[in-house]
């Protein structure tokens, strides 16, 4: 008889957690998990250069939960873990991963997510017995100011998507939060990029960190079929609807560059019998959460998104991404199409290219290091779309 060893168990996770991982059907640890889990369990500070999609969330959630299993139960619940995140969406997603992996633990630590744009009172109540706190900086400061909690017992601090937090202008809020966190702590910093600002944070906050760098998963692009259609600006809307209907697409993430285009597109799609909703910064938190949930559950065919909001979205097995408008940076293009072809599934990425876009699209292809076939759409009869 052969004995099977669990690859997550070998990283130092105990049975209760490897069982939870098995329920999620993760066959193998991703590279970031391979490196981060033992380092975090050893109490080291960690600097992770990795993007959404790398498996970074589980790479800190699992060892943090293991630390809870190893720890003596506190006499009263205190916030032991603080995860700072840039957006409401990411706060919700990270908290969900904590809940998923902890729900069947013998004494699951209470995880609470706090973020702005929703009423503060329920968050104040939830915080009373919180042990793991996932927060956006602004709302956390409000809660600290009203003494809803304190951060004196924080043993583990995670800064997730730190570069995004800086990009969104949270530098000062972050500093204010950090000034209130106990100094005796383990610090884990994740960022998609390693710019000067992140280097400064690293120098100020991390002690001899284990540095883990996960290269952009190039091979992921191999799983994505990319194509583009040359189209006149006024035929873009009908072409989009044609592609969705004739391709019988069931779950399509459509990218646009402005909230106005997003809203206009949704109106037209719905008028044409295609279930669609938009998520962008102009929508309330409730509307955004609701649209994302309906899209994930397959009750919405099209989700129209702008880049900023889409960053934090994690949808597994997304079959189609359509660039209704091209992003400005080639990086964002790769990030957008990387929404499909995740976790070894294949996906289709389609871009609509107007004459004005052609030069820019050439640059995107050059930077990405791949050529994308451009199809003519002139001959497609868009009558009725
Ligand atoms: P993240 O980078 O944390 O946003 O994770 C990206 C996606 O990968 C999530 O949908 C996870 O559920 C999934 N995932 C994380 N780790 C693994 C793994 N070891 N095997 C398969 N899927 C995973």
What overall geometry do the principal axes of the alpha carbons give?
A: globular
Ligand list: adenosine monophosphate
Count the helices. How many? 16
N-C termini distance: 62 Å
Name the strands of the widest sheet in spatial order: 3-4-2-5-6-1-7
Give a quick set of tags describing it.
Rossmann fold, seven-stranded parallel β-sheet, 40% helix, 2 domains, binds adenosine monophosphate, alpha/beta, 385 residues, 14 strands
Architecture blueprint of SSEs:
Elements: H1 15-23, H2 31-41, E1 46-49, H3 56-70, E2 81-84, H4 88-102, E3 111-114, H5 121-126, E4 132-135, H6 137-145, E5 156-159, H7 162-167, H8 171-178, E6 186-191, H9 196-205, E7 210-213, H10 218-222, E8 224-230, H11 236-246, E9 252-255, H12 259-271, E10 276-279, H13 285-296, E11 302-305, H14 307-310, E12 320-323, H15 330-337, E13 347-353, H16 358-368, E14 373-376
Parallel strand pairs: 1-6, 1-7, 2-4, 2-5, 3-4, 5-6, 8-13, 8-14, 9-11, 9-12, 10-11, 12-13
Helix pairs in contact: 2-3, 3-4, 6-8, 15-16
Quick recap:
The chain is of the alpha/beta class. Helix content is 40%, strand content 17%.
General description of the model:
There is one protein chain. Helix 3 packs across helix 4 and helix 6 (137-145) packs across helix 8. The N and C termini lie far apart (62 Å). The protein contains 16 helices and 14 strands. The longest helix has 15 residues, at 56-70. It has two domains: 9-213, 3-Layer(aba) Sandwich (Rossmann fold); 224-376, 3-Layer(aba) Sandwich (Rossmann fold). Helix 5 links the parallel strand 3 and strand 4 (132-135). With 385 residues, the chain is an alpha/beta fold. Strands 3-4-2-5-6-1-7 form a seven-stranded parallel β-sheet, sandwiched between helices. Strands 10-11-9-12-13-8-14 form a seven-stranded parallel β-sheet, with helices on both faces. The protein has helices at residues 15-23, 31-41, 56-70, 88-102, 121-126, 137-145, 162-167, 171-178, 196-205, 218-222, 236-246, 259-271, 285-296, 307-310, 330-337, 358-368, and strands at residues 46-49, 81-84, 111-114, 132-135, 156-159, 186-191, 210-213, 224-230, 252-255, 276-279, 302-305, 320-323, 347-353, 373-376.
């Amino acid at each position: 008889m052969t004995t099977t060893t669990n690859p997550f168990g070998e990283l130092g996770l105990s049975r209760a957690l490897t069982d939870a991982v098995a329920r999620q059907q993760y066959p193998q640890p991703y590279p970031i998990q391979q490196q981060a889990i033992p380092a975090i369990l050893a109490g080291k500070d960690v600097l992770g250069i990795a993007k959404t999609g790398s498996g970074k969330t589980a790479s800190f959630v699992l060892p943090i939960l293991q630390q809870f299993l190893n720890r003596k139960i506190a006499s009263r619940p205190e916030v032991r873990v603080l995860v700072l995140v840039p957006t409401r969406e990411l706060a919700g997603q990270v908290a969900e991963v904590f809940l998923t992996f902890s729900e069947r633990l013998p004494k699951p630590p209470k995880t609470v997510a706090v973020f702005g744009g929703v009423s503060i009172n329920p968050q104040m109540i939830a915080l009373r017995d919180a042990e793991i706190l996932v927060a956006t900086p602004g709302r956390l400061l409000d809660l600290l100011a009203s003494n809803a909690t304190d951060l004196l017992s924080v043993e583990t601090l995670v800064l997730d998507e730190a570069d995004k937090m800086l990009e969104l202008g949270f530098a000062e809020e972050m500093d204010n939060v950090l000034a209130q966190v106990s100094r005796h702590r383990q610090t884990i910093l994740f960022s998609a990029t390693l710019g000067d600002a992140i280097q400064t944070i690293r120098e100020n906050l991390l002690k001899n960190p284990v540095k883990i760098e996960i290269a952009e998963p190039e091979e992921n692009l191999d799983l994505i079929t990319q194509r583009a259609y040359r189209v006149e600006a006024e035929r873009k809307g009908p072409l989009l609807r044609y592609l969705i209907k004739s391709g019988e697409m069931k779950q399509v993430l459509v990218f646009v560059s402005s909230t106005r285009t997003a809203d206009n597109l949704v109106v037209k799609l719905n008028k044409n019998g295609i279930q669609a909703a938009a998520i962008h910064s102009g929508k309330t938190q409730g509307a955004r959460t609701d649209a994302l949930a309906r899209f994930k559950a397959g009750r919405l065919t099209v989700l129209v998104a702008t880049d900023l909001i889409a960053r934090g979205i994690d949808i597994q097995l997304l079959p189609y991404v359509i660039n209704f408008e091209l992003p400005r940076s080639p990086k964002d293009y790769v990030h957008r199409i990387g929404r499909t072809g995740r976790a070894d599934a294949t996906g289709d990425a389609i871009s609509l290219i107007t004459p004005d876009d052609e030069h820019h699209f050439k640059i995107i292809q050059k930077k990405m290091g791949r050529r994308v076939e451009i199809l003519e759409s002139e001959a497609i009869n868009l009558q009725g779309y």
